[in-house]
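Action item from last week, closing it out:
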Amino acid sequence: MRFCGVLAVLCFCVIFYLEHYIPFLIWMFILHTILSSMIPLGEAATVHALFKDNSFDHRYGRLRLWGSIGFVAMVLLAGEVFQWWGIEVLPWLGLGVLIALAIDTFLLREPKIERHPLVRGELRAVLQRLEVRWFLVSAFAMIFGHAALYVFYSLYLADLGYSKSEIGFFWTLGVTAEVIFFYFQSKVMSRYSPTRVLQATFMIAVIRFVLIGYFATTSLLILAQLMHAATFAAHHSASTKLIQGWFSGPLQARGQALFTTVAYGFGGTLGGLCAGWIWDHWGPNQVFGMAAVACALAGVAIAQVKTNPKALHS
């Protein structure tokens, strides 16, 4: 993480010398690759420590919620900065955040992780399990559908006549809902299996996108944003718990990286591209119709996973 943090700072400095689209696109790809590699490393170290103390259900959410709080704080801070000094300061603000991130990695204590040699073929053996493959399919479909939300939700609300401040309210409402779930997640994760939680999140996601796309009154849009507690926070926690069970020992970081790549890398990218095509050809409403269909397919996929949560580490 320290290496990636420093490398991200150095890579970001290149932005001050970019003037054309193609070099900027290549730079974005490289920077995203570096930053994305930090996520599974941090998740693996955190989750390993929590599972070792048997405190995942109680403590993971209360750690993870700080990422959501940081997101809201950064949005509010950036908004004020851009209001006073203009969007031209964006590169400097981004550089400052990455420098702070790099410094923070050196302040972290090295986690006490037991070192196990990676046995040849161990990763392949895990990936050959049908339940793991079905889970990855469900993760891909879920984020594929959510790409419509992440990419086009603000534009959709603007088309409906909502102001920028009202759009910001909807986003803040969603993040607030996920923070509340993370804080109280132990009441859910300790009572229900991760697969049962995932089944519920996919069903709620279908309802959420149908409401957004076809019943877009203010009250129902507010209800749909509150569902973010399930479709993001609950989905993330349950997925992390399953991954830790399947990809244990030396496979922890690889399992988290695989989930991030399949879901947010492939699923998010392809979902965004498909949503853009549908927006142009069939209209905004059908974008969220596609999202609902994708989440329904995710529900079909997760129904094939029969993992007993009590035997995840066996």
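Closing note: The two ends are 29 Å apart (CA to CA).
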